[in-house]
Each structure stands twice: as structure tokens, then as C-alpha cells.
Amino acid sequence: MADAAVPEPATLPAARRRPIRDHELWVSFWAHPSAVIAAAMLLAIVATSLAAPWITPQNPYDLAALDLMNSEIPPIWSEDGQWPYILGTDTQGRDLLSAILYGSRISLVIGFASVLAALAVGLSLGLLAGYFGGIVDNLLMRLGDVLLSMPFILIAILISAVAQQSLPVGMRDTLAAPILVLAIAVPSWVQYARTVRASAMVEKRKEYVQAARLIRVKSWRIMLHHILPNTLTPILVAATLNFGLAILSEATLSFLGVGMPPDQPSLGTLIRVGNQFLFSGLWWIVVLPSVMLCLIVLSVNLIGDWLRDALNPKLR
């Protein structure tokens, strides 16, 4: 018997042979100039923040590296600027470029972790509420309504303040980042849960879900393998846009004094400290961290706007 013919690469399905550069999402990305610029800017910020220990002249967390004789130096383009303090120094002699890059890393990590935590909780509870309905749906959605009835920042401040006061003094600074993640994630999961719930209520009435029930497929397999993949498009867009909101929330909490401590400065902490010297002529201490925060949030929002348009079937 002759051996079965092996299909040539040209005879394979077009969808399997199509390179990634021809994918609709990839083509849409390169056709959207603001998304390309935002992605390049965000990638540069993330790369320099991660490489901060190797590219910055100073570790702002190391008190032994600080010198008060080098305090209040203006940026390098000013008349009194000095090398290597490109963006100047603050009142403690801390290199501002180093502090901004280290602070950006903290803000990015807290923002990403809080979105991931809220996403995990929201997806789980939204699937349960939409699939089972009844008392489960009522309990979870009423809890969400209670959270939505209060201002987001008020809930975050309350959680952060209560958590810090409940800990021993020696552990407050150590656990400041996890507390911030919790404070931002708790009021954020409701949006994901309501979106997934609405999609799950539609999907569970379709024929493929009914067929899976008839052959006694377990509920958790139906939810994870059939319903969840069909709800990810709006969730992905919401998570991208909420990433920028989470970074702003962290900066707000740190600015109000219930976020990161001064010896572990995030962008919000740097802005809070620099704000005290704004009217004394040391404008760069507060303006430059604020510019970095704006660039991060702007780039994330531009990427989120492109993703929302690219994944919207009505705009194709």
C-alpha cells in the first residue's frame, strides 16, 4: 500500500499558514498611528523602569547614597544643573531621574497586580452569577451594587487605612504594596463581574451550552471552556482601560498619604513630597514625576481606545 501523501505546506488551511503580520488585529494596530506611538512610549517606560538599577546613577532607596550637599540641584538644562543629575535632585539629595524610574516600576507593578486581582475575582463571580442565576446572582449583584453606590476612592482609602492600622508598626511599610493592591482591587471587580454576568446569561441559553448540559458535562467545564472564551473580548478592553485607572488610583492614595511610604517612593509619593516645595521654586520635584504619570496613563488609554475599536465588530 502506498504511503499516505503528506500535504505540502501550500495545501494547508490558509488560517494556519497565515503569518502573524497578516492578522487583522496586527494590521489594525499598525494602521493606528496613536496606538503605535503609545505602545512604543509605554514599552520604553517599562524597559527603563525595569532596567533602573543598571542605568540610573543612584539607588534612591539607599540612604547611604544620598548626599545633602547635592540637594535641590535643578535639571541639567538649567544654568545651575550638574552632571549626572539630568533631571535634578530633591531636597534630600536624591537623583530625580532615579526616583522617577524606581517609582514608575512600583506604580506599574501595583497597577498590573490590582487589575489582575480584580479581573480574577470579577470573572469568577460574574460567571457564577450569570450561569446559576437565582439567589447566587442576587447576592453577588447586590454586593456589587453596594460597592458601586460609594465613591471608588473612598472605598480604597477606607480599606488602605484600616489595613495599615490593623498591622504592627514594623510591618506597615513592608506590606504597603499588597495593601494598595487590595484597596484598588476590591472596588474594581464589580465592573468585570457585571460584564461577564451579562455575557454568561446570553451564552448559557444557546444550543451548544444546552447540548453540553444534555450530555452531563460538569458546570465548571461549561463555564470555563464554553462560556468564558466568548466573554473575553469586552473584558480585555475593560482591563486595559482600567490599568491606567489603577495607576492613577495608586498615585492618588500615595498622594493622600495612605499609599507607599516615603522610603519606597512611587510616582504618587514623589508628587506628594514635591508638592510641598512647589511654591519655593523647586518646580521640577513635582512637575517631572507628574509628567511621567501622565505619559503612562495617556499611553495606556490610547492603547485601550485602539483595542476597543479593533475588537468591535460593528466597526470592521
TrEMBL record:
Pfam family membership, one:
OppC_N
Q: Name one GO cellular component term.
A: plasma membrane
Query: Is the keyword Membrane assigned to this protein?
Result: yes
Query: Which keywords does this chain's UniProt record carry?
Result: Cell membrane, Membrane, Transmembrane, Transmembrane helix, Transport
Keyword presence, Cytoplasm: no
Q: Where in the cell is it found?
A: Cell membrane
PROSITE patterns, per database record: ABC_TM1 (PS50928)
Spans traversing the lipid bilayer: 25-52, 106-131, 143-163, 175-196, 227-248, 282-307
Q: Membrane topology type, per the record? A: Multi-pass membrane protein
Its predominant location is membrane
Can you tell which superkingdom this protein's organism belongs to?
A: Bacteria
Its BP terms in the Gene Ontology are:
transmembrane transport
Cite the ABC transmembrane type-1 domain residue spans from the record: 104-304
Q: Per the similarity annotation, which family is this?
A: Belongs to the binding-protein-dependent transport system permease family.
Q: Which PANTHER family does the entry link to?
A: ABC TRANSPORTER PERMEASE PROTEIN, OLIGOPEPTIDE TRANSPORT SYSTEM PERMEASE PROTEIN APPC
Record's protein name? ABC transporter permease
Q: What organism is listed for this UniProt entry?
A: Acuticoccus sediminis
Organism classification: Bacteria, Pseudomonadati, Pseudomonadota, Alphaproteobacteria, Hyphomicrobiales
